[in-house]
Each structure stands twice: as C-alpha cells, then as structure tokens.
Amino acid sequence: MDVTNFSSQPHWRHCYRNICTDNFVERKHSFPSPFTTSFKTHSRTKKITMSSEVVFNLEYLTRLEESARTLESTPQQRSEMMFKAQREVDAYLEQLSLDHPTGWVIPPKETQGQDKLVQPGQYQVQSGPDRVQSGPDWVQSAPDQAQSGPDRVQSGPDQVQSGPDQVQSGPDQVQSGPDQVQSGRGPHETEPLPIQENGVSIDEVLRDFSRIGNEMEREGHPGHMAYVPGNSTAPAAIGDFLAASFNPYSLNVASCRRAVKMQQMIVQWVGRLFGYPSACAGNLTSGGTVATMVAMTTARDHKVPRSKDYSRSVLYLSELTHDGVAKCLSTLGMREAVVRKVPVDDKYRMDVNILRKFIENDVQNNLLPFLVVATTGTTDVGSVDPVPAIRAVATQYNMWLHVDACYGGFFVLCNSAKHLFEGVETADSIAVDPHKGLYAPFGTGLVLVRNGTLLRNSNTRQHGNYMQDQLTNPEDWNPEDLTFEQSAHFRAPRVLLPLQLYGVATFRDALQEKLELAKYLYLRLKGQAHIQVVEPVLSTVLFRIPGVSDNTNRALLREITTDGRFFITTTTVKGVLYLRVIIFCYRTHRQDVDVFINKVKDAVVKMELPEVEFCHAG
C-alpha cells in the first residue's frame, strides 16, 4: 500500500495531532491504520515512544471505546429486553388456538336472538381455564357467551374487527394495534425496519418484529396441517437463548469439552433409538438436507473415490423421495450422476423388484450403482419403504444404503410404530430432523453414519498454523471433523433442554397421539359419503372426492380452508390428486380434528354432489 497516498485521505488527516504526556509521545507521521502500533522502549527515560511510522489518536480511541461499550448490556437492560420480548412472544402464542378470534378471518354471523354481528373484540373472547371451552361442535366465551364453532359462528372473507384498536383481517388487508400496521397486497407494507446508522429503542424493534406474526404461516397453530409443520417449545427457545448468550465454540473439545459432550450425547441417544452400534458417529446440522448431504458425501468418498467416475455413478430413489436428496448431488459436485426414480407399489413403498431390474440393467451398461435411498415416512403419504429388502439389494451390489427418516424418524419412540423401522439399524447412514419429531426450532437436523470412521475420514479438518498451539488429542472426535460446517450455532441446548425437562415419555406420548389422531380422522372420513380416504401409516391422511375432476377437489380444498382455521394442501400421488392432511403439531388434539371433520362434511354438503354409496378407503 502507498503510505503517502493513504495519509492524504481526509478521513485520516484530522487524526494527526501532536499529543505529549509524561509517558506518551505521538508524532505526526503517516501509517495505514491508526490502530496498528510499533512501540520502542527507552530504558533511560522510561517513556514509551511510538516509532516514526505510527500515528495514534488517544481521543479517537476513547470515543470508539465509549461507543463499543454500548454492546455490553447490564443485567437491568437484559431483564428489560427479555421482559418485553417475552410479552411479544406471549401475545403471539395466545393466537395459536383454533378458537382464538384473531389470526384468521372469522365471518360474521348473527348471535342467537340478536340482530347484530358477533365482533370478537366487542364480546371480549378470552382464553383461560374458566373462560373458553372448546369441543368438536362449540366454543363458549365469557362474559357475554359469544359462541363459535363449525355450526354457529363462521368466518367470511371480507372483514372482522376486534377490540378497541380495531384489528381487521381479510384477504386484502390486516390492521393490528394502535399504529394500524397493515399487511396486504402492497410490497411496501411488509418491509421490515431498515438497518440504520444509529439504533432505535427496543420497543420499536420488537414492535416491528412482532408484525411477522401477521405475515407468516403459523406452523405451531393446531389447524396447520400442511407440509410437515414445524413446532417449537418454550424450553427449546430458552436453549437457544442460553446457547447464544454463552456462545461456546461447540465443535472442538479444546474450546468447550462440555458443549461437545452435549452434542455427542444427543447423537448417541438417537443412534441407540435406531439400533446403531456405539461406533456410529454423527452431528447436529441445520436441517435434513444438510444431514443428507453429509451422509451422501461419506457415501461418495467411500464408494466413488475417483471423480472421473461421477458421470457413471447412479443414485436410486423412489418416486416419493424428498426432492432435497437429488438436490444434494449438485452441491457434492456430482451433477453428472444418473438418478433413477423407482416407482412405488400400491402401498406407496419403493418397489424392490423394479429397483433390482434398474440396477441389473445399469450394471450391464457399465454404470456404477453406488447409493440407494429408502424413506421411513414419505412427505407426500407417510409411507415407509421396505428397508430390509432394500438392504439386501444394496449389499448384493455393494451399494451404500441411506435412510431418510427426517419426517417419520422419531415415531420410532412409539411402540406401535417400531416395526416400521425394522432394518434401519443396518443402513449405512440416517438423516432425521429434531425440528420435526422432537419439536425443536427450525434449523435442527441430525446425521448418523453407522461406521463413524468413514464419516470422520470425509470431514477431518487440517488446522491452520494459527491453531498450532491448541492442545489436541487424536482420540477426541470433534464435531468439526464430522461435518463440513465450522463456526456453527450451538444447537444442542434446543434439543437437550426439552428432553431433560419433559422427559422422553412426554415426546413419545405426543407422537403417539398424532398416530392415533390420524387413525381417528381416517375412520371418521371413511364412513362419509363422497369421500375416498387412504389408510395412514404414520400421521398423514390423504382423501378426495372420487369420480370428479381435479378442479372439484380443489374447490373442496378452498371450502375447507376459506376461513383460515385450517391449512391443508393437495398432493399428486401415482397421477391422482388428493387433499393431504398431516397431523403433527403438538397443539393439535381431538377436538381440533373434530372441528376439521365437521368442516369437511359441511363443505361436501355445500358442493351438492349427487347421492352415492359410502366410498371405500383407497
């Protein structure tokens, strides 16, 4: 760098002053940075004199320090911020109830014996043990006993007003609070608070952030039955708060042995759930796709060590395998690899006979079958592939077997579902999502590799010289040597704290409840006219009106979801369009499913379909 030219810049010229004290002398000379110093000590005078190349401004440094200390919050400041943040969280969580009057559009309806509309704010619908009672057919709310339910108070698309601040919601407009924050069609209405040179108050920041509650899919809502909804518990949120506050580097024993042990404990516990040996290894990841990518990287390095063979390597999936699996090939540098999608049988499981034929044909054509992915809980249907049979084929052709258990994996906790995971203990790797079955926040996946040494060989980190003084033990299995991630978030507390606080039994019961609710929904819909329903394997239920167009089934979907109480979607399986319900949120219980069933029945009646016999399950 040209020091002379640098010193001529206006930004630095004001720093060049002569400041003399008893122990410090600053001289007017240029240097690229006012913070880089080279001191010379003169033993006779006992003064520290800066070399002739350095310029330093003590007043400037003091001003920087005063500003930087703003980041060092006091206990009182932290308490105030946490209290205000918790208030916003509580306000949001109160809306995660099927009977809460805000958060979705409730159409007006006249109350019994009155000629005026039910206004949620006017009648002060409140929640609590003595105030709101919910059930399959009714909801009562004190003090004026405004009643709502599938047969009494319904929602409409145009307008609902609530409370003294006139909270309004509809397809075109949502207003909330005294400042009438709006979200709707205009993109400007959802812009977050901008990043500015100077900060603002915590109240303004939280007020802005809380608007997200009116502009999101409320995954924790009991009526959210689309995709695979994410959930999060209070202890998990506290775990994230603790992880961010203590902020350990959790990927190396030398930096924080206890943090590493917390992660290893979770990994080994999950390994035991699936029957893996103690020699397995794994890591917490940012999600199922990254977990799958880590596993596939290990498979690639072990089965296809030479990059020149990538173009003839073959990956085998079922037609219902999650799209994230094939996506990983590009990230791994195997874009040229061949992907075979194996059809599923009449139970939506990978057809092993067709898989074998595909492999035999590829071998004859000098291709290299290297990886097959089985799924225990497909996203579309919840079906489970026959892992033992797939394992036999993989062994015969020296292939890596990976099991995608991201959605269904933690149902292994349930005694009624354990048989579905037979053979998973023989898989070479598994991906599972704690942010699904263990109700951790989004961004929590987990990868397991049966032979941990193979995982380590694919990811071992060679430290730079700047870490040469760090004490290391070759016997330590550091998380940074079991994934490509470094400087990752300390994810263990968000999983561990809820397990420690509630115990495994609570999670087992919550998951078992979802399996039972899926069976309950299936049996209730099975006996309804005009409805064809697919028997669930896990907690996903597909149904449709047979013998009509796809547009008619989409119209049924719109009728069910129009008031915003329930969110479901469609899927197409083996060329047939179905309405898809997944019961996974821990807040979803029988009374919510009863309301949903009534809504389906009412929607079918409104469609005025011709009389038919009961439809058999499909």
Span between termini: 74 Å
As a percent range, the share of strand residues is 5-15%
How many separate helices?
A: 17
What is the mean predicted local confidence, pLDDT?
Answer: 80
Alpha carbon gyration radius: 30 Å
Helix amount, in percent?
Answer: 25-40%
Describe the main β-sheet briefly. Answer: 7 strands, mixed
Strand order of the largest sheet: 11-17-16-15-14-12-13
Q: Tell the overall outline.
A: globular
Low-confidence stretches: 1-48, 102-188
In total, the number of strands is 21
Summing up helix and strand content along with how strands pair, one would put the structural category as alpha+beta
Structure characterization notes:
The protein is built from 17 helices and 21 strands. The chain is α+β, with helices and mostly antiparallel strands and 618 residues long. A hairpin with a 5-residue loop joins strand 18 and strand 19 (540-544). The radius of gyration is 30 Å and the shape is globular. Residues 1-48 and 102-188 have low confidence and may be disordered. The chain is 33% helix and 15% strand. The modification N6-(pyridoxal phosphate)lysine is found at residue 436.
Give a brief rundown of this model.
The protein has 618 residues and is an alpha+beta fold. The protein has helices at 3-7, 10-13, 58-68, 75-93, 202-210, 234-246, 257-273, 288-303, 323-331, 352-364, 387-396, 434-437, 452-459, 492-502, 504-526, 550-561, 590-606, and strands at residues 24-25, 39-42, 47-50, 132-134, 139-141, 146-148, 161-162, 167-169, 173-176, 181-184, 281-285, 313-318, 338-342, 368-375, 400-404, 429-432, 445-449, 532-534, 540-544, 569-573, 576-582.
